[in-house]
Write the structure tokens for this entry.
Amino acid sequence: MASPLSAGFCELVFQSTDTPENVQPVLQVLSVKKINAPAASGTDRYRIILSDGEYFIQSMLATQLNNFVDDGSLAKNAVIKLTSFVTNAVQGRKLVIILGLENQSWTGDKIGNPANLEQSAAANPPAAAAAAPPPPAAAARAGAKAGPPGRTASKPGKDMGPLYPIEGLSPYQNKWTIKARVTQKSEIKHWSNQRGEGKLFSVTLMDETGEIRATGFNEAVDNFYELLQEGKVFFISRARINIAKKQFSNVNNEYEIMFENQSEIEPCDDETVPQVKYNFTPIGELGNLQKDELCDVIGIVKEVHELGSVTSKATQKPFAKRDIQLVDQSGQAVRLTLWGKQAENFEHNDEPVIAFKGVKVGDFGGRSLSMFSSATMMVEPQIGEAYALRGWYDANGRSTNFQSYTNSSATKGDSSVAKPSELKTIGQAKDEQLGMGDKADYFSTEATIAFIKQESFSYPACANPDGCNKKVLDNGDGWLCEKCQKSWPNPIHRYILSLNVMDYAGSFWITAFNEVAEQILGATANELMAFKNGQDVEFNRVIQKATGQTYTFQMMAKQDQYNDQIRVRYQVRKAASPDYAAESAHLAQLINQMST
DNA sequence: CCCCCCCC
């Protein structure tokens, strides 16, 4: 049987400096391997070995095509047609980056006995320079329709090196050009610290293969800040590529670009470079996201609040701040906070549609949103979601009574119960070092009481009915409160209860103060104190009844110093019965997401 | 070489 594969394709790739054009080769998958370094977003990346029946060659799957792996159509022995791809050279090795493919419904085994082209080439180097056009035979066999390769980006008289896909950039290459759209541009930021001072800006660049952040310092600000316009496409070359510090950005790339004095940036008229892609979360579904997660949101700006200012607790610096309210078809409203210049310059009081990319989810008052430095906003974007939203708002939306996250607790049940998606295991709380920072961290965990400390579970507090609650001392003449300067015949005991709680994988000690401890034990500290002093049976009954109970705990983690040791203290702020129905629904939803 | 993303 004749091979269905495009014999000669691997040789064609190997011998061409640029991506062969007008070729849609049919190739067989020899292996699919998940790479150890996933993209910054956590997206998996796959390396795929492709065979043309004679040779095989390495390829990478553009992450937006991962669904072909997930649904099983890109598996060992599958035969695919590459409908779109680019090639590049990494340290002399050729790599195909797959941008589009069609499965060819092949059900057979491995075709032919393909050899490693790199090894063959090393043993038998081609006589012609790599820049030579491919042999006609190879091109023809690979299915080339017409035309020379030739995709070197150049302007008159200046060679800028081969055109690279963003996904193919790495610190090991220095001669490259990308053609990319600026999807985000920061303000110019000035800094000053012990290492010096200066100014900088950054942009997010995007092409059909991926995105990358680029930063320019000092002179590069003067040279390029005005030139690089948000939304425009540019040729960019002769810049440095560094390892990205991913903790500071949500841009999906291992690397980032640093503009230098000799960097070349040229505007480009080609509008085929893709626009920003959004993955909108409806406002009504923000509750399904974790606090601090980044998301895309589109909404009608229903309210614009006054410009305000806050002083950062961390830096003591003032920040301009403005809240706006967004609504959408879900009937839900959410507050979004703008900062700095974006807050000062926001003047859209005519209920526009705005699309936000990369805004941070907060949990203040249920759910809130905050602009992140790398977040972008597009007023009246020319996209389907915006037209739909506008149509709905003009027809019905304007007269809708929107549910607000901030006062949703009265209508949406007990807000003290954490949403299933927000729960952390005890192990996660420790792994994430919650409470180890300067500020307290808040989280919710579902855990079972394993042990209740029975010594010193309470302290004698001031009996003043105004709720002084300060510790009092028995001076033989009554219990003296130093704050109230009053003596009481008896104190009121208040709990400081230590509980050891555990979930399936871990445990920790937590502290419950009076109200929560009363709820957990079903007795006041005064009652328990009385039991302890007389009827041990009752005391044990209270303790045993509470032990083994499972709660959703709202926790605060905060570090303090104790005997010169820094330690994290976990305090229970609220305890509630777990909402097993909601948790099951959440799990079912996660399962559905996996299988679609 | 920044890297803070804040407040209530």
